[in-house]
């Protein structure tokens, strides 16, 4: 009979969580679903949990954030357990590696470098340290090491930042705006003459340049789009509520009616 004392100890801390995951993955007595998982099958859950953490923060849902952070921590423990089973790494080695990295990347805090630097200088020093780390991993090309599975807009900005470091960048925001007009024109022409695959390519080019504009304006495109999504949701809900007050719903309304209500909602928001 397994000793469950640690499993049921509310003060067991990190050892308790690690033991729970080890038991869940036990090939003889664990959970069949957990046993079947691998790195690839768990990765989407890891990404989802990270977004749920970000969502709780954005909403200021501090009562939910504790649980969401726990869910995200569990994902790290899950990957650590699978890594240990395969002989790749352990939870302790993961902790040691990130701790070593933080010490190495902050010589002005943990070493003998001066803390008397501007935020810009510290950022520049950070990039130099990361560049040295990439070189040690034989990532010698400018764009090496930018994760493939980042959200597309985020990855676009990171790729552009890397290219800008070696001088491959428009010096003026106006030039980016000109490129957006050019790409939009090409997309408009593509609608009539090109295949769907080619239209998708032109649309991707336009999004890529829009991400570049965000970088030049010092705007986070992911954050900006999330805010636009929230605004659209808020305003459409208000339109739906207004229709409900008339005993109707969007399905039995015209676009003109809904557009008029939408504009009324916008005017009300500007006055508030």
From TrEMBL:
Source organism of this protein record: Poseidonocella pacifica
Protein name: Nucleoside triphosphate pyrophosphohydrolase
Reaction(s) catalysed (UniProt annotation): ATP + H2O = AMP + diphosphate + H(+)
EC number: 3.6.1.8
Domain NTP pyrophosphohydrolase MazG-like: 37-110, 176-237
Domain of life: Bacteria
Family membership: Belongs to the nucleoside triphosphate pyrophosphohydrolase family.
A Pfam family the protein falls into: MazG
NCBIfam families, per the entry: mazG (TIGR00444), PRK09562.1 (NF007113)
MF-aspect GO terms: ATP diphosphatase activity
């Amino acid at each position: 009979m397994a000793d469950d004392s640690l499993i049921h100890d509310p003060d067991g801390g990190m050892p308790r969580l690690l033991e729970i995951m080890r038991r869940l993955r036990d090939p003889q007595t664990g959970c069949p679903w957990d046993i079947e998982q691998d790195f690839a099958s768990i990765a989407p859950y890891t990404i989802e949990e990270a977004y749920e953490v970000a969502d709780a923060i954005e909403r200021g849902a501090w009562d939910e954030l504790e649980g969401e952070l726990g869910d995200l921590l569990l994902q790290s423990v899950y990957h650590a357990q699978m890594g240990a089973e395969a002989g790749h790494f352990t939870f302790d080695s993961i902790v040691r590696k990130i701790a070593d990295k933080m010490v190495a990347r902050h010589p002005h805090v943990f070493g003998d470098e001066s803390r008397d630097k501007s935020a810009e200088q510290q950022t520049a020093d950070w990039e130099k340290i990361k560049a040295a780390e990439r070189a040690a991993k034989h990532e010698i090309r400018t764009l090496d090491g930018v994760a493939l599975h980042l959200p597309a807009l985020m990855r676009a900005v990171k790729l552009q930042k890397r290219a800008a470091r070696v001088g491959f960048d428009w010096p003026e925001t106006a030039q980016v705006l000109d490129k957006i007009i050019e790409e939009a024109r090409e997309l408009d022409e593509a609608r009539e003459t090109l295949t769907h695959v080619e239209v998708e390519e032109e649309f991707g080019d336009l999004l890529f340049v829009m991400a570049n504009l965000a970088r030049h304006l010092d705007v986070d495109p992911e954050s900006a789009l999330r805010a636009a999504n929230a605004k659209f949701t808020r305003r459409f809900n208000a339109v739906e509520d207004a229709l409900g007050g008339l005993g109707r719903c969007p399905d039995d309304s015209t676009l003109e009616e809904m557009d008029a209500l939408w504009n009324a909602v916008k005017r009300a928001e500007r006055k508030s």
